[in-house]
Amino acid sequence: MNSYQNPLRDPQDRRLPRIAGPCVLVIFGVTGDLSRKKLMPAVYDLANRGLLPPGFGLVGFARRDWADQDFAKEVHDAVKEHARTPFREEVWEQLLEGIRFVSGTFDSDESFESLKKTIVELDTTRGTGGNHAFYLSIPPSGFEQVMSQLAKHGLAERHAGTWNRVVIEKPFGHDLASAKELNAVVERLFTPQEVFRIDHYLGKETVQNLLALRFANQMFEPIWNNHYVSHVEITMAEDIGIGGRAGYFDGIGSARDVMQNHLLQLLALTAMEEPTSFEASQLRAEKKKVLAAAHVPQHYDLHTARGQYAAGWQGGEAVIGYLEEEGVPADSKTETYAAIRVDIDNRRWAGVPFYLRTAKRMPRRVTEVALSFKRAPHLPFTVTDTEELGTNALVMRIQPDEGVTLRFGAKVPGTQMEIREVSMDFAYGGSFTESSPEAYERLILDVLLGDPPLFPQQEEVELSWQILDPVLEYWASLDSQPDQYPAGTWGPESSFEMVARDGNSWRRP
Ligand code: BG6
User: Cis link prior to 171 (omega < 30° from 0)?
Assistant: First the structure.
């Protein structure tokens, strides 16, 4: 069995590199975008950092009529184009020895027999030890078939001293009911401990830094509550449009695509209580507690907003609207902008609205968590002195320009008492020489190590759907077009009205 110990538990272990043991990583859907841009480069980066063992195999499974060499060339090109670390021939040569391709379809017994042979061959020749991770980078509609084929061909059998794991990518269903069905399919074959659900935001350094900021310091936690915080904004803005992803995105929309997972996970980490340790069970218990206490207040017309980008300008270029994008039906009601207010019913957060927003075709790409603080109860200044005093805020910049900003008032130099808002910045680039690994590097390594804290559990997935389902049902019941916003702007008018109703306004990140 896996003898890996979570290094956060034992300070003696902290400097030891976490190196995966012998294993095979099988990727289904290996010809997809995710695999090319993220998974294959991440595998190479891990190898380059010396975190993969010599006994490692990478098996691609897809329809293409490829031989091992053709797939190897694909991996090579993907690595050259997207890997984070420099290309080193000797690392590549070693990785190449374990690269195999199985050409097949999910309904073909022959394909899965061939997959089995390939894995057995790797176990024997490369010493991968009978340890196998199956990465499902495929639409959920394919899960059932892959699961039953893995079962039928004995690919998920447990043998003493070896492990099998399955990795699944979102969307984990499109609502609570379908998430439960999907999970039942996966857990028919794999135990909950063997299932690794990827939410790549949890693999980001800056997201993990939320835990460090809150729980490694004394100065933030005392003000991290409704006595001091007036509201919290969690923004995930993208400047890109839907590009070639209409097939995936249309009918799903921004709320299901990223709010159900990335944004609600950010909310959970921001609002949860301190876990007794960073062990998976402890961390998940706290996230579950806070998600269970969270809900969107009724009157969804007042506390939510949805939009769809119209033609506009982005970075000085004219861009088309969502409905003109290739593959999008001319009458699509899919939202590309989603904003909701979430209230948390507990002592720490009662009365503090959490505003979550995400969109495509915003003026810039930025993800941040911003806590805005209440005004000081008394200001011993004249009104003109404090005209330019904004709201005190703590902004955790998830990406880009990773870091933390504190905004507060300071005296403008001069003979008058004039207060103006200023910033104090921590930037990763300025403070650390180490560069941040890509989220997928961290997560793939954790899968191979069997280290679960960064993977949401099914219960968290279900709680997130419970928060979002009523809003999605409400939007569907309107049977109308989402509000339009010109590409390159911060969203529809209704989104500004939504926060203005509470006397707040969105930050301009
Ligand atoms: C994915 C979404 O989960 O996250 C995409 O499906 C989105 O629609 C992407 O573009 C953004 O990820 P990142 O890491 O670039 O913020």
Answer: yes
Q: Which backbone phi and psi does 227 adopt, to 5 degrees?
A: -70, -30
In this structure, is the dihedral angle defined by the CA atoms of residues 365, 370, 374 and 380, taken in order, positive or negative? negative
What is the CB < 6 Å shell around ligand 1?
200, 238, 257-258, 367
Tokens 């996970």 — which residue? 265
Mean pLDDT by 10-residue block, N- to C-terminus, for the chain (509 residues)?
46 70 96 95 97 96 96 97 96 97 97 97 95 95 94 93 95 95 95 97 96 97 98 98 91 96 98 96 97 97 98 94 97 97 98 98 97 95 91 96 96 94 94 92 97 96 98 96 97 98 94
CA 195 to ligand 1 centroid distance, Å: 22
Q: Does residue 470 have a cis peptide bond before it, meaning omega lies within 30 degrees of 0? A: no
Which ligand 1 atom is nearest residue 238's CA? 10
Separation between Cα atoms, residue 445 and residue 508, nearest integer Å: 36
Cα(238) to ligand 1 centroid in Å equals 8
Please tell me the distance from the alpha carbon of residue 131 to that of residue 119, in angstroms, as a whole number.
Answer: 10
User: Cα separation of 497 and 34, whole Å?
Assistant: 36
- Give yes or no for a contact between 261 and 457, defined as CB atoms under 8 angstroms apart: no
Closest residue to atom 13 of ligand 1, CA basis: 201
Residues in the chain: 509
Q: Provide the 3-class DSSP secondary structure of residue 226.
A: coil
Query: Cα of 398 to ligand 1 centre, how many Å?
Result: 13
Global model pTM greater than 0.85? yes
For residue 164, what are the β-bridge partners?
A: 132
